[in-house]
Design a protein that fits this description.
Elements: E1 2-7, H1 34-48, E2 51-57, H2 61-73, E3 77-80, H3 102-110, H4 123-135, H5 138-141, E4 146-152, H6 154-164, E5 182-188, E6 191-198
Parallel strand pairs: 1-4, 2-3, 2-4
Antiparallel strand pairs: 1-5, 5-6
Helix pairs in contact: 4-6
């Protein structure tokens, strides 16, 4: 019984691009490959003694394409859930960070937990929605012998990792959260606990 969080593979975007809800494409071929991610997931499931029963995913293509591949490989039901999306950067989406007005970005960077980009959302809002998505899977992730997979992005994963470690949502947890990396959480009486971090290697 576990909830496994998986970060999408590398995106085809220039360095310094601001993207959250911006639907950037994946590198082609994927890096790491979908087969490599599948192998890492299989190894994790084997170590935990679990079978993958459900796959949930952010609707952004960089997550959905991988989620579809893994759902088919495990004959598991796939559900798209917008709550697993990355932070919304609003008017900054798709722009280079060095083209964004520092008069706007500097105050936001000082307190992203409570300040939002123009038309975007705060880190607190992101935390609220991904916690709701996570907790909505508690029953499924509590079934003996089964695991639920959520495919998404580094921001939501970092927030849920902080929760599992008993840390505040900001400043961010100092973890690399590699592309294709996995986190396994188990439900407890009063929250969630981290049982394994697994890079895709």
């Amino acid at each position: 019984m576990a909830l496994i969080l998986l970060r999408h593979t590398r995106v085809d975007a220039p360095a310094g691009l601001c993207y959250g809800w911006h639907d950037v494409a994946l590198l082609a071929p994927p890096q790491p490959s979908f087969d490599e991610v599948h192998t890492a997931l299989q190894a994790l499931l084997s170590r935990l003694g679990l079978k993958l029963a459900e796959v949930h995913s952010s609707p952004l293509q960089r997550a959905t394409l991988l989620a579809q591949h893994l759902a088919e490989a495990h004959a598991a039901r796939l559900t798209l859930d917008a709550r697993w999306r990355e932070l919304s950067f609003g008017e900054w989406e798709g722009k280079r960070w060095d083209f964004i007005d520092r008069a706007q970005s500097d105050p936001w960077a000082e307190d992203p937990l409570h300040r939002a980009p123009p038309g975007g959302e705060t880190l607190a809002t992101l935390a609220e929605r991904v916690r709701a998505a996570r907790d909505g899977l508690r029953d499924a992730a509590s079934r003996p012998g089964e695991a639920v997979l959520a495919v998404g992005h580094a921001g939501p994963m970092r927030l849920l990792l902080a929760d599992a470690l008993g840390l505040p949502p900001y400043p961010p947890v100092e973890r690399s959260l590699d592309f294709g990396g996995l986190l396994a959480l188990v439900p407890t009486d009063d929250g969630w606990r981290l049982v394994e971090e697994s890079p895709c290697s």
